[in-house]
Design a protein that fits this description.
By secondary structure, the protein is of the alpha+beta class. The protein is 19% helix and 42% strand. Residues 1-27 and 504-509 have low confidence and may be disordered.
Length: 793
């Protein structure tokens, strides 16, 4: 407004001056034969002529001059304009506004400098732009309001402008003294009778000072937080039947020192209402009974806006399954006059059915397109289904070589029933490789190398190779998995390994083994979430013991397989050689939303290994394990993992082979007990394992905020389990020599509790735990801190 008044006044004075000058020349008007601009520094003459409503050959008078002055001032480029006549030449004398040479902002903490600079640039206050003092004054008011909305009423915005006359530029500095946010001294609710202040304020984000305020900062006032709390208050009543609840007014008062805030909220509760009738109106597009089955509220129920909203979301999702991606479902409650009853009508507008024109993948560089496309359950050319899209995204997230997946749907320009779907994927490390050379006085020179790749050559195939050599152990293994041998999703895994382990120096078991194995396994999908496994494992094994070996190991070697004795310089060796041909059968049900760090869904597995006739030793093993996620309080959830495994010898085989026995304790079983040390002990008091494993792990998981939560998980856990022996393997008390009963008994279960941290790192999945054994017995070996590094690929 000031600029407009100034411009008008200057225009009047110039017109009067122009008129007076023209009268002195006995002419109020003249024909322009030439024009000249004086005073320009940075702006080109053409810019002035472009805005000037006068051309050579025009006849001008005072009215035309006034019009021209307004046009030139309207550009905002000049602080002063003067029109003069030099014969038949029109002279336009101007003074350019200064440009901004430098703009600095200091003292801000609550608002980032980048955000402030972006806002200032939007109003023309930026380096190189023309300086306008009224704009700077408006910026001061704007920034003050921004800090007021954050509860900082003591903020001081100091702007300084330094003019550089020679360059016609200015340097602007904005110094901000933010001060402290005002603290909430009191929040009062007036008019509530049914619910107490404590009940209502417990739902608020804003609170008066409490013992956690130093951390949560919840006693600091912010306008946005108050608006959110008022909406929460409205929802609190609306979800409990008070359909005519109103927030009448809100008063926010600040103390004279601008440090304390007093909030008063006036409400009218009204009366509780019940549902009298529920109707569906509009074009349903799907069978109405299917939509009615989704209605969460019934006649006679207490009115709840939350249930109406949830019902509308369920109906919208159901319509989206059949391609009505842009459907609208509006629940409209109507209060029956003179009663406390509400009738609800769900108005349905399905819109047109949308079809998918194209599906594309962005962000891929090392993965073949068909590898991602074969995970799609949403097909091009088919109608858009939100369930199929969600499942497609979930299947992509389950691929171990993809770190993140985001989905966007874009309408096709010029069409109201076509969309394009784009999956933006972020590729992670597809695998790892490592190796090393070392030396040990016990093992001698040690060499190891390993390689894991879950997306070999971009095909999605998994390759694993492992090599470890030392004085007492040699291990070679190889595995290849093709998850799509056929387009229908039949998978195939080929494995081979050789292990030569001399364990006379091992504290766990004193015998040596040599085992060569070959395996072939197929996976067959029978539904979206269920697969069958079947295959064969061939083993050729040799076990070697001596006279100092524990009784249980020596007994097995002497009674099973092709057993024989050999005399050597150090004494007598007992060895047995056998072949076993295992038939592998399995069933898997997996609905987890991702493989690592899942937070919903389940995985249940049953596996059976059975030696077929012709094997030197005969046995079977069966394992059942279940992993389930349950929502808990707020963002927390429960993760339960239970496992039962059993093995039994068949035919002439006396007991199951030692390498098929189960061992317990440690991160995968009962944390807080040393890994492998739960269960039966041999005569040397070392773990010998059992043929029955029972374990359960329950964790309360606390999701961490931001990006940290994608790779780190914190939980409290309770573990239970043990290893038992129900076969004919004898065990004896070391002191008395009496037989020990290791059969299953709940009183022999071990329990522990503690805290666990999981970290998904590029090198693998690190698991750290600190456990407190609850009922450890004499002889148990406990270990509070434990960690493991597992494959993350």
């Amino acid at each position: 407004m000031k600029q407009l008044l100034r411009t008008g006044l200057l225009a009047c004075l110039l017109v009067l001056g122009w008129t007076g000058g023209a009268a002195a020349q006995d002419s109020e008007a003249f024909t322009v034969r030439d024009m000249r601009v004086e005073g320009l520094q940075r702006i080109a003459e053409g810019t002035v002529f472009n805005y000037l409503p006068i051309s050579i050959g025009d006849r001008i008078d005072s009215a035309r001059v006034q019009e021209a002055i307004r046009a030139v001032f309207g550009t905002g480029l000049f602080s002063d304009v003067e029109f003069r006549r030099d014969g038949d030449t029109l002279v336009i004398a101007v003074r350019e506004r200064p440009s901004i040479r430098r703009l600095t902002i200091s003292g801000n903490k609550d608002i980032k400098t980048e955000d402030l600079e972006e806002s200032l640039q939007g109003v023309g206050l930026a380096r190189g732009r023309t300086f306008d003092r009224p704009v700077l004054d408006e910026v001061e008011r704007f920034m003050t309001d921004q800090y007021y909305s954050r509860g900082k009423y003591g903020v001081i915005i100091d702007t300084q402008v330094v003019e550089n006359e020679a360059e016609n530029t200015v340097d602007i500095s904005i110094n901000i003294q933010e001060g402290e946010r005002a603290r909430i001294r009191q929040v009062a609710i007036v008019g509530n009778e049914v619910f107490s202040d404590d009940e209502l304020l417990d739902e608020f984000q804003l609170r008066t000072r409490n013992w956690l305020s130093w951390y949560r900062q919840d006693d600091r006032y912010a306008r946005e937080s108050l608006v959110g709390d008022l909406e929460t208050l409205q929802s609190f009543y609306m979800d409990r039947g008070y359909a005519n609840f109103e927030v009448d007014s809100t008063q926010v008062q600040i103390s004279p020192d601008r440090q304390d805030i007093f909030i008063t909220i006036n409400v009218t509760e009204g009366e509780p209402h019940r549902i009298s009738e529920v109707r569906i109106a509009g074009k349903t597009a799907v069978p109405e009974e299917q939509l009615r089955a989704l209605i969460l509220t019934k006649p006679g129920d207490t009115f709840s806006r939350r249930q109406l909203t949830q019902t509308a979301e369920l109906m919208t999702f159901r319509l989206g399954e059949d391609g009505f991606a842009f459907a609208r479902v509006d629940p409209v409650p109507t209060v029956t006059p003179g009663t406390n009853e509400v009738s609800v009508t769900f108005y349905i507008e399905p819109g047109k059915r949308a079809y998918v024109r194209r599906i594309s993948f962005a962000g891929t560089s090392s993965t073949n397109d068909e590898v991602l496309r074969r995970e799609m359950r949403q097909l091009e050319g088919a109608y858009l289904s939100n369930r199929a899209l969600e499942r497609s995204e979930q299947r992509l997230r389950r691929l171990p070589y993809l770190e993140d997946v985001q989905r966007e749907t874009y309408p096709v320009a010029g069409s109201d029933d076509l969309v394009d779907v784009e999956f933006a994927v972020k590729e992670g490390l597809p695998g790892s490789f490592g190796g090393g050379i070392g030396y040990s006085g016990l093992q001698g020179v040690i060499f190891n190398a390993n390689f894991v790749h879950t997306n070999f050559l971009g095909t999605g195939n998994r390759i694993e190779a492992d090599l470890n050599t030392g004085r007492f152990s040699t291990v070679y293994s190889f595995l290849h998995t093709d998850p799509y041998v056929t387009p229908d999703g039949v998978s195939r895994t080929v494995s081979a390994s050789y292990r030569d382990i001399t364990q006379f120096v091992s504290g766990a078991s004193e015998f040596g083994t040599k085992t060569a194995s070959l395996g072939l396994e197929y996976g067959y999908p029978i539904s979206e979430y269920t697969r069958l496994r079947f295959g064969m494992q061939l083993y050729d094994s040799r076990l070697l013991t001596n006279a100092s070996s524990p009784f249980q190991s020596l007994r097995w070697v002497q009674l099973n397989g092709d057993s024989r004795e050999r005399d050597v310089s150090g004494g007598t060796l007992f060895e047995t050689q056998f072949q076993s041909y295992e038939l592998v059968l399995g069933w898997i049900y997996d609905t987890r939303n991702r493989v690592f760090f899942a937070d919903r869904g389940a995985r249940h597995r049953i596996s059976l290994n059975y030696t077929v006739p012709g094997s030197s030793v005969e046995y079977y093993t069966v394992r059942l394990d279940a992993l389930q996620y349950f929502p808990f309080i707020g963002p927390t959830f429960l993760e339960w993992n239970g496992e039962v495994a059993y093995a039994e010898a068949l035919g002439d085989t006396t007991e199951i082979p030692p390498f098929r026995r189960y061992f317990g304790g440690g991160p995968g079983s009962v944390r807080g007990f040393r890994e492998g040390w739960l269960g039966p002990r041999d005569t040397n008091q070392n773990p010998f394992g059992g043929n029955l494993e029972v374990s359960s792990q329950v964790e309360m998981v606390f999701p961490l905020p931001g990006e940290v939560g994608n790779t780190t998980r914190l939980s409290l856990f309770f573990d239970a389990g043990n290893i038992f022996s129900t076969d004919t393997t004898p065990f004896f008390d070391r002191v008395t020599g009496e037989p020990i009963d290791n059969t299953f008994d709940f009183s022999n279960m071990r329990y522990s509790t503690g805290v666990s941290v999981q970290w998904l790192a590029p090198l693998g999945l690190f698991r750290f735990s600190y456990a407190f054994p609850i009922n450890d017995e004499p002889g148990d070996r406990t270990e509070s801190f434990q960690f493991t590094v597992g494959s993350a690929f």
